[in-house]
């Protein structure tokens, strides 16, 4: 297993879902990303340019969730993975999109989709 940088619990608001009220009213989403990054050069040089600026990436992830509504959180997770893989230092990513207010009609703790994507 390689080095990992994790951003957990990123909160964003979006209008994703298949139901008309989800598209109209929107709802909160929570996103976790775990980045596969070789951190050796950054650790050696203590230089941010040698790793991922997670503050900047967090903003882009939240922005990706807040734009262009889609039906499925699977599609949203892929969009977030693409944002992460656009970072040159990211080799692979695990993305989990949580939909804490999903309209499923029964009490629940979590509704989430997790995907894994890599450059190869």
TrEMBL record:
The protein's name: 7,8-dihydroneopterin aldolase
NCBIfam families named among the record's database cross-references: folB, folB_dom
SMART domains: FolB
Start and end residues of each Dihydroneopterin aldolase/epimerase domain: 5-117
Provenance organism: Tenggerimyces flavus
Matches recorded under Pfam families: FolB
Reactions that this protein is recorded to catalyse: 7,8-dihydroneopterin = 6-hydroxymethyl-7,8-dihydropterin + glycolaldehyde
Family per record: Belongs to the DHNA family.
Keywords per UniProt: Folate biosynthesis, Lyase
